């Protein structure tokens, strides 16, 4: 058998039914939609409609809070950074910045930058330049002889008396 001789089995693909083409076709006149009413007509959209009763999606309780000022960080654990340094995918001698983490495939997403988390252990002496870091991550990196530079701007305190 050759690739150009491959064919579907007989009857594997069924042609579409042509509706509204006379009574002899079996799907003529009303085209299988029954008589009158909303569902027989064009442009029907009653998926969520429950006959006047409050629809289920509106009856279910809403939970949580969506913070409009929340930051969207891409998070990376120090243990994973150490794995990438050991595998020679990341150069620990240079500054480990957001661009370097993205280039090696360790970080994706996070429109407000990268945040360093303290899960795992780090033994490499590395300098991190990131948008945010937890206290535990900073302590672990400094214990290994490295440093963390947080580049995210600090929130400005406004004086109420200033005019």
CATH architecture assignment of the domain at 74-150? Ribosomal Protein L15, Chain: K, domain 2
Please report the first level of CATH classification, the CATH class of the domain at 74-150. Alpha Beta
* Succession of helices and strands: HEHEHEEEHE
What is the total tally of β strands?
6
CATH topology of the domain at 74-150: Ribosomal Protein L15, Chain: K, domain 2
Mean pLDDT: 87
Shape field: elongated
* Major sheet: 3 strands, parallel
- Main structural class: alpha/beta
Helix content: 10-25%
Radius of gyration, in Å, reads: 31 Å
Strand content: 5-15%
Spatial order of strands in the largest sheet: 1-3-5
- Poorly predicted runs are none
Number of helices: 4
Distance linking N and C termini: 87 Å
What does it look like?
With 163 residues, this protein is an alpha/beta fold. The chain has a domain at 74-150: Ribosomal Protein L15, Chain: K, domain 2, CATH 3.100.10. Helix content is 17%, strand content 12%. It has helices at residues 56-59, 78-86, 98-103, 135-143; strands at residues 74-77, 96-97, 114-117, 127-130, 132-133, 147-150. A three-stranded parallel β-sheet has the order 1-3-5. The model has no long low-confidence stretch (mean pLDDT 87).
Give the secondary structure arrangement, pairings included:
Blueprint: H1 56-59, E1 74-77, H2 78-86, E2 96-97, H3 98-103, E3 114-117, E4 127-130, E5 132-133, H4 135-143, E6 147-150
Parallel strand pairs: 1-3, 2-4, 3-5, 4-6
């Amino acid at each position: 058998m050759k690739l150009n001789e491959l064919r579907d089995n007989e009857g594997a693909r069924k042609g579409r039914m042509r509706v509204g083409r006379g009574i002899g076709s079996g799907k003529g006149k009303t085209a299988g939609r029954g008589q009158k009413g909303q569902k027989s007509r064009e442009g029907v959209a009653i998926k969520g409609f429950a006959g006047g009763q409050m629809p289920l999606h509106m009856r279910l309780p809403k939970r949580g809070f969506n913070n409009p000022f929340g930051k969207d960080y891409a998070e990376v654990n120090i243990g994973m950074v150490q794995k990438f340094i050991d595998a020679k995918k990341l150069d620990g001698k240079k500054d480990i910045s957001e661009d370097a983490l993205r280039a090696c495939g360790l970080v994706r997403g996070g429109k407000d930058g990268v945040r360093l988390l303290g899960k795992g252990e780090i033994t490499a002496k590395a300098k991190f330049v990131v948008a945010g870091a937890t206290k535990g991550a900073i302590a672990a990196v400094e214990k290994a002889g490295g440093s963390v530079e947080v580049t995210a701007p600090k929130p400005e305190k406004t004086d109420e008396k200033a005019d």
